[in-house]
Amino acid sequence: MREMKSLLERKLDRRLLLAGGLAAAGGTAVAASGARGQTSQAGHEMPAAAAGEKPPAHLSAHGSMITVGEVDDARNGFDPSKLLSDWDTGTISTLPDGRTLRTFEVTAEDKEIEIAPGIMFPAWTYNGRVPGPSLRATEGERLKIVFRNQGSHPHSMHFHGIHAARMDGIPGAGLIGPGEEFVYEFDARPFGCHLYHCHALPLKRHIHKGMYGAFVIDPDPARRPEYEAVARSRLLGTPENAGWQEFVMVMNAFDTNFDNENEVYAVNTVAHAYAKKPIRVLKDKPVRIYLVNIVEFDPINSFHLHGNFFDYYNQGTTLTPTLKTVDLITQCQAERGILEFHFREHEPGLYMFHPHQSEFTELGWSGMFDVVEAVS
Amino acid sequence: MTDLSQPSADTRADRPRWAYLFWIALPLAILGLAIAWLTSADPLASFRNGAPPIENLTFERTILGTDGIRVLVRAGGSEPMTIAQVQVDDAYWQYTQDPPGPITRGATAWISLPYPWVLGEAHTINVVTSTGTTFGHEIAVAVPTPTRDSLSFAAQAVLGAFVGILPVAIGLMFYPALRGVGRNGMDFLLSLTVGLLAFLFVDALQDAFELAGEAAALFQGPTMVVLATAASFLLLMAAGRRSGTPTGLALATFIALGIGLHNLGEGLAIGAAFASGAAGLGTFLVLGFTLHNITEGIGIAAPILKQRPPLRTFAALTLLAGGPAVIGLWIGSLAYAPQWSALALAVGAGAILQVIVELVSMQLRQRADSTRALFAPAAITGLAAGVGFMYLTAMLVKI
């Protein structure tokens, strides 16, 4: 682990300095006074970790650099551990022409949520959660999204997908006032890992207040004969797909004091959620992450996996990787993609993931995979 | 008759007393009712516009030690406020709060962070409250905070002696040489004293206002400075004139006291600055302070030139004027809060104003053509020399 390593180095440095300082103390008085300054520096090596009982491994990995306390998931109404695989597949019916019609219901509402232990944020939400529901459909289906605005401001759902201009969710095309309702209708295409967000103005405020969510369209194996096996593994509900461990991760951030800079960074809203409760991953089952970046104010975000490499499908619109064998990808706002990797040849343990913008990591966006042999 | 008049007199005496009590109790009862109504019926609910409570947090002390960083914060919000998280250098860091829980208005709490700070570098602490409001505090240069050990006490005493006691002693040592001066020389010396004191008055007030600005809003810093200056001025005027206008040794003692109070405030500020690493201590800087304060000794000597006080009087005057610098350094480096330094400087400013008034009135009294005495060439030159010397030597120490 990067943090562990740097800590070790730091300790080593201090010991050397201490030794040097003590040696100098034996020499001249001047050198001794210099060493006094160094010994005082040598003193503070993670006192919190040293005091009391030994913390669990996944907590000691972060040293003292972590938020204090726990977030009340029950009050928030959503649990980050469950958000990871909580797909909203809507309700299915068949159209006269035989096609599948998938209907989603989404309500915009104002809600105060706890984004880090003790820090309340006056969010604007879809279905009372941030990120909004992770909508999942299959390529070629007809989609109907019934959107109701119960918030205090005008809102919309702007989908990243292929649709008519009047379904775009911008002012004049599906942007509705409080108390109103709008139905977005379009075909599910192209397949991939997409997102939706509110396109009301000012855009920055509506996005960073929490109005966004993942929008995943699975490929239809029948339409992709050349990569049918891959397509089947991506299609939710197939036995092949059940062989994967799929997680949706929306990289987001919150500007709690409204100075156009973020105070809290996270995946799926709650700072350090997956650092404090690592994501349990089976060693033998491959992992697929639907990763979306919606961070406002910062131009770029990234994802770095420790001790492992992954294949990356930029925007998920291809069935062959756009980047092979990388351990870091970057995403600008609204950029997204699919990460695929496995731990088959790894020993069980804690594998960290975080953006390689250290600032985001240190402000809450970091997590760990707890790789195990079998579910206990 | 007396048997009858006695009780009636008592009732007359009783009635007004009862009435007095009634007229004290009634307004208080109405105040109590108003408070009860305000808190229970909530008639001001319509003013509540959904805005979150106002929060304010002031950082009063910073201690850097082997166990990390400790800061003392004072809450000044409209309601008790809760610290949710603490960032150090843009990283959420584990912390403990003592006492824990919401901090009520005016109350303080210690925040302890086991943070591996780096000697000589800058760090930023950012407190995030439950509403997401942030309060930042910059540690300009991280140096270990002096601890309560005899070694640093002794070092500070030496420093205090150099900036406070030594210059006053040197200044007073001009006494024998000054005794021979004539009338013009006397005018010059007294005006020189007024000039240097005027400089100190302006300097002390300006520093006091600056420090008051750093203090928590609930202390009403600038108001406190003005009131403390006025109060110390009036108290010392009253005390000084209890047995006539002070002259000679009494006046010299008041000058020493005023300078001493100023040096106390100065010592507090210097001690705090060094403790917080805001200023590095150079030999040049210390010499600057010594030079800067030499005129203070001459000023104390001026009113007693016509007397011949014993040597121990000089020693006492030196300690009174210079000693507080040592005490200020000790307190400033250990228990620093801007409002106390501001208060000390404001009291010092008031004391200096008092001696200025007394010196000028002495000059006026010594001459028949009183106002002319103030504007005699020697007096004007002395005034200019006093202010000018202080201003120029201050250039050595202002950073």
From TrEMBL, chain A:
It catalyses: nitric oxide + Fe(III)-[cytochrome c] + H2O = Fe(II)-[cytochrome c] + nitrite + 2 H(+). Its cofactor is Cu(2+); Cu(+). Residues 35-60 are annotated as: Disordered. Keywords: Copper, Metal-binding, Oxidoreductase, Repeat, Signal. Pfam families: Cu-oxidase_2 (PF07731), Cu-oxidase_3 (PF07732). InterPro entries: Cu-oxidase-like_N (IPR011707), Cu-oxidase_C (IPR011706), Cu-oxidase_fam (IPR045087), Cupredoxin (IPR008972), NO2-reductase_Cu (IPR001287), TAT_signal (IPR006311). Residues 113-220, 260-372 form the Plastocyanin-like domain. Its EC number is 1.7.2.1. It comes from the Bacteria. GO terms for molecular function: copper ion binding; nitrite reductase (NO-forming) activity. Cu cation binds at H155, H160, H197, C198, H206, M211, H356. Homotrimer. Belongs to the multicopper oxidase family. PANTHER family: FI03373P-RELATED, MULTI-COPPER OXIDASE. This is Copper-containing nitrite reductase.
From TrEMBL, chain B:
The keyword Transmembrane applies. The keyword Transmembrane applies. The chain crosses the membrane at residues 20-39, 153-175, 187-205, 217-236, 248-264, 270-292, 313-336, 342-361, 373-397. Keywords: Membrane, Transmembrane, Transmembrane helix. It comes from the Bacteria. This is Putative metal cation transporter. It comes from Mesorhizobium metallidurans STM 2683.
